[in-house]
Amino acid sequence: MKKYYYLAICVIVSLTLTGCFGGSSNNTPAYSLSDLQGLWQENNTEHFIRFTTEQSDEAGFLYGREWHEDEDVIEQDLIDSREELGHPGNGWFKYEFKTSDGDLTEIHFMDNGGTEIPKIYVVSILNDSELSYYEKDKENWKYSFTKVVETK
User: Fold this and answer.
1) Does 135 map to a domain?
2) Beta bridge partners of 94
3) Residues with Cβ within 8 Å of residue 95, at least 6 apart in sequence
């Protein structure tokens, strides 16, 4: 009988310690695409970025836009230039967000010849009001944004 009590105590202690120390080796946070989508402002500057729900291609990338209002560019300018060019240009990018590991791939479009410039970021914070990420190969290049509440 003592053997069963001893075994039961060992099992309880093991389960308790597993629960206390995380048991799971997966400490990578899972993110939500819906939290990423929307309008973001960088550190109260005039730099804005919008992650849309509009699909850009069959590969599953979505469109995004980025602009600096201190350079006299507003979001409508990007929308108008797309209509004039017949395709996205400067300020537009397509993106893919891997919510399991926080990898954010942005492929920026250029007006001249359809050049595409890829950038890969790692998201460190993402919730309904805050976004922070850094360039994958340059961890000291960090960007922080606050979600803009849009009024209609």
Assistant:
1) yes
2) 63, 107
3) 51, 61, 62, 63, 64, 104, 105, 106, 107
d(CA 11, CA 13): 6
Does residue 109 lie in a domain region? yes
Q: What total of structural domains would you count in the chain?
A: 1
Q: What is the pLDDT of residue 125?
A: 94
Q: Which amino acid is at 19?
A: G
**In sequence order, which residues have a C-beta less than 8 Å from that of residue 9 and are 6 or more positions away?**
none
* Residue of 138, 132, 145, 147 lying closest to 29 (CA atoms): 132
- Residue 90: give its domain's CATH number: 2.40.128.280
- pLDDT tens readout for residues 98-143: 998 899 999 999 877 678 899 999 999 999 999 999 998 887 889 9
Against a cut of 0.70, is the pTM above it? yes
Is 7 a member of any domain? no
Give burial (CB, 10 Å; 0-12/13-18/19+) of 143: middle
Q: Is a pLDDT exceeding 70 seen at residue 17?
A: no
